[in-house]
Inverse folding.
């Protein structure tokens, strides 16, 4: 029984139309770039999770803790909203994560008397020193 093979070029509709992103009229290079970027991002998330695991935190908690240490190096008063804005997280989500960090004593909160500012957050000196701040 003979099988007949057809070679047919598969055409995929371009996902971009800007000429700067096309190579010889194809967006293949752009698609590859997006794929590689997403793979790299996934690997960074794995590394973040593993670094957090070393000190008993989730990857997100580790990221929040490092952000607090980083921001404290630039300003004495680091509030929940500043951390949330820095990480592009919602204020509510950041508050939950900071409360988890406070519960396991990896950060502390100091409440101000002003109603517009809930609190400032800090991390222990040993973590600040490790992050270079």
């Amino acid at each position: 029984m003979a099988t007949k093979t057809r070679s047919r070029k598969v055409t995929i509709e371009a996902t971009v139309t800007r000429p700067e992103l096309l190579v010889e009229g194809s967006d293949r290079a752009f698609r590859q770039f997006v794929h590689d970027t997403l793979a790299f991002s996934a690997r960074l998330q794995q590394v973040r999770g593993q670094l957090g695991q070393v000190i008993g935190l989730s990857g997100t908690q580790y990221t929040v803790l490092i952000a607090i240490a980083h921001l404290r190096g630039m300003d004495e008063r680091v509030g929940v909203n500043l951390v949330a804005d820095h990480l592009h997280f919602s204020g509510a989500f950041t508050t939950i994560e900071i409360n988890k960090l406070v519960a396991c004593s990896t950060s502390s909160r100091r409440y101000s008397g002003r109603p517009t500012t809930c609190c400032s957050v800090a991390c222990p000196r040993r973590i600040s020193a490790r992050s270079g701040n």
